[in-house]
Design brief:
The chain is an all-beta fold. The protein has one domain. It contains no helices and four strands. The protein has strands at about 5-10, 20-25, 30, 40. It is globular.
């Protein structure tokens, strides 16, 4: 299982429980309430 370092991105959607994260490779992830993080987009290298 790979390890990622995440940085949370603040958006107004955080007020209703939707959070966005960016990992150390530049990929964008999302998390709804207390669920698992899921990849939204893959960084173009």
């Amino acid at each position: 299982m790979p390890h990622f370092y995440f940085r949370r991105i603040w958006t107004p959607l955080m007020l209703i429980g939707i959070q966005f994260y960016k990992d150390d490779h530049g990929d964008l992830w999302y998390k709804i309430f207390s669920g698992r993080r899921k990849r939204l987009s893959k960084a173009i290298a």
